[in-house]
Design a protein that fits this description.
- The complex is a heterodimer of chains A (133) and B (430).
- Helices cover 0% and strands 41% of the residues of chain A.
- With 133 residues, chain A is mostly beta strands.
- In chain A, a hairpin with a 6-residue loop joins strand 6 and strand 7.
- Helix content of chain B is 62%, strand content 3%.
- Chain B has a 3-stranded mixed sheet with strand order 1-3-2.
- Chain B is globular, with a radius of gyration of 21 Å.
- In chain B, helix 7 packs antiparallel against helix 8 and helix 11 packs parallel to helix 14.
- Chain B is built from 16 helices and 3 strands.
- Chain B is mainly α.
- The longest helix of chain B has 38 residues.
- The chains are: A mainly beta (133), B mainly alpha (430).
- Chains A and B meet through strand 8 of A and helix 6, helix 13, helix 15 and helix 16 of B.
Amino acid sequence: MSEWICIAAIEDIPANQVITVQVQDQELLIYCSGDAYYVYPNQCTHEEVPLSNGYLVKGAIVCRLHGAKFDLATGHCLRAPAAKNLQAYAAAVREGQLWVNLVPAAHAEKPPTLTITSYRAGHTLASAFGNKP
Amino acid sequence: MVVQNDRTSVSGGALDERTSVSRSASERLSEPPQLYCLPVTYLPADSALPVALPMSVASGRGQGDLDAVVESASRMKRTLQETLVTPAQLAHLLERLWQPMAAVAAAPIDADESQPTFASLTTAAPDFSPVMAAACAIYDQYFGVVRGAALTWPQFTTQVVHTCLALLPDLPHTLLDRAQLNQLIATMMEMFSVLAERGQETGGQDTTRHPLLATHHSPPATLYQQAWQSTDPADRAWCERVAFYRWKVGHHFFNWCAIFCRDALVQAHAAIAADDIDRGAAQLGQAECFLRGSTAAMWYAGDFPARLYQTVIRPSMIMPGAPAGFSGDQNADYNRMKTAKQELKGFLRAHYGQDLVALPSMLRHALLQFHEADIQDNEHHLLIAAQKVGTDQSLAQKEWQAELPAHVYRQHALDILRQMAEMKRREFGV
């Protein structure tokens, strides 16, 4: 799939926290650090557990179940037992909106010049998230 | 690499310190020193059964040896299932199974076969992230596991035999229940059936052992009986030595179960993809047997008092120089088995719908049985953990939860196992 999809308004994405959005039967995890936005599947690569139920620790997310830890800027696994890194989706900011291409970033097309006319209303912010139990 | 027999000497200094208790115990005991010595085992670096033809030409003798093991294990399985075997009778029965296995292990060495290539998971596991590969390598080191690249059928078979021989003579001296004993024997039978059938298909029926992989001599069950009869059960050193032995040999057998289970799941996946539903269901049945075998291996590995676990075994897994957080989740073979399960699940959902309603009835039945074994495995794991550590955290939990904010609730081992049990119940959507 090479289609770019608008998934959230930038103003709805808090800095240094994680939010989730539901897109095409898939739950995505969004993390913002400074001007950078990162989008991943909201699932630990070790078990099928939502990472958004875990803990944010200094730019990394720790899975609640077995403690697998991932760098949110790179997707790299920082601690076992996850055997695989998180695969980021290509993401781009255009006109105050965050867009994502639902193929892994390494294979995605270059972000096009997006216009607001392709905006798809109805995205949902599934949950705000911080360092809470 | 220098590999010595009878000791986990490949592990280096940290582990040597931890096993010093059992070593000094060995020196003090009067029975033959080879009893309850910690074996090294060689497992495939890719957790897979061999696919290549062996380099040596089959002599014809090997297949007969394997068939004799299967036949003996099959007889014993029936006896355990149908009669009230007593512990004394069990020792006698196990000796009958031990003999054909020992014959396989004693097959002549083929000096012409090329040396196996040892592999490190940190370089030979492209399916693992670097941190996971490193964690798995430490796990292997602790348990005395050496990884071999592209093991031949004879090498592979020899290692299965050695682990079974290490386990069998000790079984009459455990407090395992009838069901777990039966499952261990049934699992061995299934393993040797696979080795006999698949080895024959690929021309790998020669069980000639490789000199480097024949790691230890296994004494017959009678020697174990004599040792137990002459040992003071209150002898602390003896207890620690036996506990270490069960902990490590039990994990070796667990790893074999995971390797065979993974293979059965991969075979099931391929068969179902080729619309061979009968074979797919049969392979799932085999996977169920190996999974239940791994459950029984957990019980065997932990067949010692909780106090020994807390004071001796558990501290031995906190190794100087190694990252904290030692965990069974760092078992490479187990992880790959889980990956095979997830891939099969993804395939079934893609082809038969999320709820699997379109699954052919034979396949659905086999899947339900496997699924049930998986759930029960988790429940058994929970009971074992509860017996050993109560509501304490696992070593891994202690490590990773230490970096969480103070107000966050610290989950313990049973919390996690319960969550996993709940996940497993939903796993196949059936």
